[in-house]
């Protein structure tokens, strides 16, 4: 019994050593981050910055940052804010999750938060990443300081951050469309974000009938086949 307890303590100590945020904090400004700027590009940061003057490209890591378990493996992960400047008028703000899993921390693809969107706060709670940004009105100029705080919620799906609100909208739209198509008491058996505006869901009715639903988060159209 004593041996078993000592073994568990040793395992916990080793896991805790890996989970210490200090090593992760040191790794963040030196990682390679992937940003979709129209085409997916990777940028290897040095001291929190990437610069290619000839291409007029700069990527910088900004505050705030957040720490917590994003993928449920028991290790402390992170989320960072990146600013992409491609030399044009836009200054695009991205959110990148970083998984702290052996053998080394690795950044997953970043998602766009907006053009010059102030990020007020980030937190990670039970696998959910919450980001508070100050959103301008659609017709407000970029230089306007008039904005309102909005909290966006994200979770990992196939190692990509997806909107909790979008996932819920896809689920509700597909279940509604399935009932219209005659499925009795349908439920969502599986749900996956494919990319772009598309979600794929597998639905199962009470009688065992299985259907696939495609949901477009832009057009808000669900199709069951």
Characteristics of this structure?
single chain, 225 residues, alpha+beta, 4-stranded antiparallel beta sheet, 3 helices, 16 strands, disordered N terminus
Chain oligomer state: single chain
Biggest sheet record? 6 strands, antiparallel
| Strand segment count | 16
Structural class by SSE content: alpha+beta
What is the overall number of helices? 3
Q: Which percent bin holds the helix content?
A: 10-25%
The succession of helices and strands, N to C, reads: HHEEEEEEEEEEEEHEEEE
Approximate shape: globular
Walk me through what this model shows.
This protein has 225 residues and is α+β, with helices and mostly antiparallel strands. It has helices spanning 2-19, 21-27, 164-180, and strands at 32-36, 40-44, 49-52, 57-68, 77-85, 92-99, 106-107, 111-115, 119-125, 128-136, 147-157, 160-163, 187-195, 198-204, 210-216, 221-224. The strands form 4 sheets. Strands 3, 4, 5, 6, 7 and 8 form a 6-stranded antiparallel beta sheet that branches. Mean pLDDT is 85; it is low at 1-19.
């Amino acid at each position: 019994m004593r041996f078993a307890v000592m073994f568990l303590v040793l395992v916990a100590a080793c896991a805790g050593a890996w989970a210490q945020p200090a090593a992760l904090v040191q790794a963040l400004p030196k990682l390679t981050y992937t940003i979709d700027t129209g085409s997916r590009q990777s940028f290897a940061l040095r001291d929190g910055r990437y610069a290619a003057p000839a291409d007029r490209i700069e990527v910088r890591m900004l505050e705030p940052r957040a720490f917590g378990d994003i993928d449920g493996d028991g290790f402390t992960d992170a989320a960072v804010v990146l600013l992409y400047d491609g030399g044009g008028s836009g200054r695009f703000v991205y959110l990148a999750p970083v998984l702290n899993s052996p053998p080394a921390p690795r950044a997953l693809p970043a998602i766009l938060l907006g053009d010059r969107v102030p990020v007020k706060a980030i937190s990670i709670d039970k696998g959910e990443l919450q980001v508070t940004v100050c959103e301008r009105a659609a017709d407000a100029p970029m230089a306007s300081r008039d904005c309102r705080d909005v909290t966006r919620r994200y979770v990992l799906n196939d190692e990509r951050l997806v909107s909790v609100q979008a996932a819920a909208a896809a689920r509700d739209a597909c279940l509604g469309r399935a009932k219209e198509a005659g499925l009795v008491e349908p439920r969502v058996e599986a749900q996956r974000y494919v990319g772009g505006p598309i979600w794929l869901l597998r639905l199962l009715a009470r009688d065992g009938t299985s259907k696939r639903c495609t949901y477009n988060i832009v057009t808000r159209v669900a199709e069951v086949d």
